[in-house]
Write a structure and sequence with these properties.
Helix content is 39%, strand content 11%. It has helices at residues 3-8, 49-66, 92-95, 97-110, 129-148, 168-180, 184-189, 201-211, 219-224, 231-239, 284-292, 308-321, and strands spanning 23-26, 70-72, 113-115, 157-160, 190-193, 215-218, 249-252, 260-262, 269-271, 300-303. The protein starts with a helix and ends in a 9-residue tail after the last helix. 42% of the residues are buried.
Length: 330
């Protein structure tokens, strides 16, 4: 168990002073369409981490321009970095060490918090050992990327527990066992997030007690899968798992409520959305009410809305308009 994770066991015993909460978004920039998130070319076109680094540099400058201080990198930032059948893409982090250090220094100078969130195909607790081994390789690569960027302990790799496979206790134990077998960079960077269907905050707290890994609280997921915990209490218990001196983060989104028109003519109908779908923007009233109940706690908020950076910018304006900007701290 890493020193960061051990420290988290004693976090939250006393309220931390409020700070100016950083709001962030994931991967794709919509406010300036000429800013792709990474090198998206297919393997035949020889994509390279060097291109992703150039694109991150431009994104960081944009974030500074608009005052956004948190950003999630694409999980494909290192193209094909762990692909078992394409070894020529391995070692990209080492080959681009100087450029990574430089762009990471820029992020630190601008006060922009970076993180990563592997795709749904990265399942550490999979019953299939080959799937789990691939997950371990991806988690290690992403942790090593944050190390190469020179980021502090706030820069984390966020992972869901995985699948139930018909046995909750065995699935949780398998996650903990696999976590303990990860290389040190992955254990140090990894944090676990509750999901909307299988594993709630209570399950993530069990993993924290076993491994020390901090818990990221996802507001919308918890409302769909509370597992018996009241929302603010669940959030506080998740925040308590973070080490003192490391600012926690939570995820927030609003459910999509607008339907879409499908069919034509007399066959036309409105197809309702699913509650688990994220809205384009965030309901500022729910957001403000939730944060006001945690005004004594220090944390940042990743906004998981479909409108990305535009949703962050609109949320800030909306909070000002309804007189609730104080929830973002001082």
């Amino acid at each position: 168990m890493s020193a960061m994770h051990v420290a988290g066991r004693n976090a939250g015993l006393e309220p931390e002073p409020p700070h100016r909460r950083r709001l962030g978004f994931a991967v794709k920039v919509l406010g300036r369409p000429d800013l792709p998130s990474h090198d998206t070319r297919r393997w035949r076109s020889n994509p390279d981490l060097a291109v992703s680094i150039e694109r991150l540099h431009a994104i960081l400058e944009y974030l500074d321009d608009v005052g956004i201080r948190m950003y999630r990198l694409s999980s494909d930032f290192v193209p094909y970095g762990t692909h078992p059948e394409l070894p020529r893409f391995h070692g990209q982090i080492e080959r681009n060490a100087d450029a990574l250090e430089a762009v990471g220094r820029l992020a630190r100078e601008l006060g922009i918090r970076l993180s990563l969130h592997p795709s749904q195909f990265v399942v550490l607790n999979a019953e299939d050992d080959a799937v789990a081994a691939k997950a371990a390789a991806d988690l290690t690569l992403q942790a090593e990327l944050l190390d190469a960027l020179g980021q502090g302990p706030e820069a984390v790799v966020v992972l869901h527990v995985g699948g139930l496979y018909g046995d909750r206790e065995a699935a949780l134990a398998r996650f903990a066992e696999r976590f303990e077998g990860l290389p040190e960079p992955a254990r140090r960077r990894l944090v676990v997030e509750n999901d909307e269907a299988c594993f709630g905050v209570e399950d993530c707290l069990w993993i924290h007690a076993r491994t020390g890994t901090p818990v990221v609280f996802d507001h919308q997921h918890h409302r769909l899968n509370p597992r018996g915990l009241e929302t603010v209490d669940a959030a506080r218990r998740a925040l308590d798992t973070w080490p003192r001196g490391v600012t926690p983060k939570i995820h927030f989104s609003s459910p999509r409520l607008d339907g879409r028109v499908v069919g034509r003519g007399k066959q036309q109908r409105i197809e309702p959305p699913l509650l688990r779908q994220h809205a384009d923007y965030v309901d500022p009233f729910t957001f403000a009410d939730f944060l006001s109940q945690l005004a004594d706690r220090c944390f940042d908020v990743m906004i998981e809305a479909k409108a990305k950076d535009l949703a962050v910018l609109k949320l800030r304006r909306d909070l000002e308009a309804i007189g609730r900007a104080e929830v973002l701290g001082t």
